[in-house]
Amino acid sequence: MVPALQLHMSKTAMRASQKDFESALSQVKRLKDPGNEVKLKLYALYKQATEGPCNTPKPGVFDLINKAKWDAWNALGSLPKETARQNYVDLVSGLSSSSDSSSQVKPEADRKQPGYETLVVTSEDSITKIMMNRPAKKNAITIQMYNEIMLALKAASKDDSAITVLTGNGDYYSSGNDLSNFTDIPPEGIEEKAKSSAILLRDFVDCFIDFPKPLIAVVNGPAVGISVTILGLFDTVYASSRATFHTPFSHLGQSPEGCSSYTFPKIMGPAKAAEMLIFGKKLTAAEACAQGLVTEVFPDSTFQKEVWTRLKAYSKLPPNAMRISKQVIRNREKEKLRAINAEESRALQERWLSDECTNAVMNFLTRKAKL
Ligand SMILES: CCCCC/C=C/C(=O)SCCNC(=O)CCNC(=O)[C@H](O)C(C)(C)COP(=O)(O)OP(=O)(O)OC[C@H]1O[C@@H](n2cnc3c(N)ncnc32)[C@H](O)[C@@H]1OP(=O)(O)O
Can you name the CATH fold of 18-93? Predict the structure, then answer.
């Protein structure tokens, strides 16, 4: 870029940002109480934007409020003042843009793409959003929903959106595989059912392995089973503080899928992965974040606003650069992931024929067992 033009552009951007910052400062006074976590975030960004990195002495352990403020500011490290100012403006605009603070999203009937019964698929602001839409069944994934998610991902890989999001409608992200999928046995028998389910599973997970654009999970509530395991194939995972992460495979007489037998030990180390995948330990959002499965946790009260503000900003980045970056990060693992997916699907095909699995599913369907 011509240096003079570059200088002009950056000065304009900084001036605009300073103006936005001042208006955000007055806007923030009119907001209803956004809760302590957001207030701390606002405080930290304000201090960073106006004074730069925190270099004041750390308050004593009993000075709880000032220590919390200092920690929040100090956590921003050497974030540049301009970026802090911009983040402050984005956060305030997200907080003001909608008065709806609930985690339930109303399906956007007017903008939704036709042809899906179990999903609401929308494309707006260079973001394709695929929302699982069986809230009364906790977004349990039926055979139809697996097929529709694959269709939606294939369409999103070719549309002009820059990023793609998977999320859930209602209080759950997803309760995983719909256990009544196992009851629809074809005339060819149970072996045939297990075989076709293994093929479906392999094809479904391959779609995530091969997805070419940045893929983001917006985990709006508890996540179970396959909705958790495939998170290792996403590029970013944002979670509400209400979300939990649970893979009760042994309880169900089953074994891990979604390449989690490979991605989880890689992400969180073998010992933590084994506790989740073998013993079914349920993680809170904070624990999942500490272990690297989740990118960032947001307070439930501001989850939708904060996440969508962030995603709208990301979706404005150059789309080709984002795609190439993803390829560079992921491509060398693709063949390996496909082989792991095939192996996990084969193991499950056998598990689905076991007494352990049949009894666990029957117990759930006859309401003798719940997680
Ligand atoms: C073909 C490819 C296979 C890939 C392999 C995948 C494996 C997995 O994903 S394993 C994980 C399977 N999921 C589960 O085991 C979860 C089972 N569900 C539960 O334990 C509970 O429903 C709950 C803890 C998720 C929620 O409990 P609660 O808040 O008490 O709500 P309800 O149980 O009353 O649920 C409301 C409604 O939704 C139905 N439902 C919820 N989850 C599922 C599910 N996974 N499969 C089928 N149906 C589900 C539940 O039966 C209720 O229905 P109604 O009784 O008709 O209201």
Answer: Acyl-CoA Binding Protein (1.20.80)
- For residue 33, how far is the Cα from the chain centroid? 26
Please tell me if the domain spanning 18-93 has the same topology as the one spanning 119-369: no
Q: State whether the beta carbon of 179 lies less than 6 angstroms from ligand 1.
A: yes
Distance between CA 134 and CA 118 in Å, rounded?
6
| DSSP line for 299-341 | -GGGHHHHHHHHHHHHTTS-HHHHHHHHHHHHGGGHHHHHHHH
Which residue owns the Cα nearest ligand 1 atom 44? 178
Average pLDDT, the chain: 90
pLDDT mean over 351-365? 93
pLDDT score for 110: 55
Domain boundaries of the chain, sorted by first residue: 18-93, 119-369
Q: Does domain 119-369 have CATH number 3.40.50.10380?
A: no
Residue 225's region, left for phi above 0, alpha for psi from -120 to 50, else beta, is: left
The residue contributing the CA closest to ligand 1 atom 1 is 197
Does the beta carbon of 176 sit less than 6 angstroms from any atom of ligand 1?
yes
Evaluate: CB of 150 within 6 angstroms of ligand 1. no
Alpha-carbon span 257 to 226, nearest angstrom: 7
Amino acid at 88: Y
Poorest-pLDDT segment among 33-42, 97-106, 242-251: 97-106
Which is it for strands 244-246 and 283-284: parallel, antiparallel or unpaired?
antiparallel
Distance CA 208, CA 158 (A): 14
296-298: strand order across its sheet: 119-124, 127-132, 163-168, 215-219, 236-240, 296-298
Chain-centroid distance, C-alpha 74: 26
- Residue 198 near ligand 1, beta carbon < 6 Å: no
Look up the ipTM and state it.
Answer: 0.99
260 lines ligand 1 (CB under 6 A): no
Residue 269: phi, psi to the nearest 5?
A: 90, 150
